[in-house]
Amino acid sequence: MNLKHAALLLGLLSVAPPSLAADTTLYLSPKGSDQADGLAPRTPLATLQRAMDIAYQTGKAEKAAHVRILVEEGEYRGQATRVGSPPAGTHVEVAAAESARNKPVFDGAGKADTWFTLAGPTQAGATFTVRGLEIRNYRTAISLDGNRSKRDAYITGGTLRDLTLRDIGQIAMPDKPLSTAAIRLVNARRITIADNTFIRIRNIQQCAPLHAIYLAHHASDNRITGNTFDDLCGSPIRIRDASNRNQASGNTFKRAEYHSVFDEWYCDRSVNPKCTKASGECPSWGNIYSDNKVEQSNPDAMARPTSVRVQRVPPGCVPDAAGKGD
Fold first, then answer.
1. pLDDT tens sequence across 35-56
2. Which of 76, 88, 97, 123 has the most crowded Cβ, counting Cβ within 10 A?
3. If we measure between CA atoms, which residue out of 14, 72, 11 comes closest to residue 40?
4. Whole-prediction pTM value?
């Protein structure tokens, strides 16, 4: 290569667009410190909240396309993380470190209510992944909180994969109020929930309100595939209020006590004064339950696993209107 061509190449590299910035990896360890920079295995962070804060700062400042948080094997007690959308165009991934022989464990230890909360709306091109972890002893494991009253303020672009969710619900905090979900999606769309294991998803006082996966208020076009549900006392998958075209396939349900494993419902203000959504709720349409197994469970759920509890369709609730923008 002559000097002229070399200089030209260096010039092109120096003006490479920010979108091509190098990916970033952060490290988390039970022995870490939030005073560390988290940029190397020898200087790990201690809490997922701090790691997420740095990941977001990095994604925004450096326009990194992919920020990974690698979680070292071990136990992380009492942690709770709350964030908004990842920066525009950034994929934030939380995953077990490649060196981990066993899944890293986040244990609420009876002190933390929800392990991971992500609030919407999602910024353009932002995505997130959480995989390869065990979450136990929380009232709720994961809550994706879009705005239930503003249809366009939604969460999207997420993957929850290969997680073990154990002892989730009021069982983890008996003195606290009822839990409603292990994984909650409110106005969250096109989320993949795949290859996870749910074990002992239970309330102490009342089981019916608790669901392993709760899709509510315009939570549409989500995919629930290849999961195993074992020892649950409420409806494993609940769909509510204009949450359309969701699909549950290839899942296995064991020791499910409720009379169905996949059901639809909405709060009808004309008959229930406790409904809280000011604009009212609608039934859901186009949801698919296929190729699942129900074993060692409530005989009704084994004979007829799906249930649609809709007595009437309120004025203004029609499939096109409910699905518009979803």
1. 999 999 999 999 999 999 999 9
2. 76
3. 72
4. 0.91
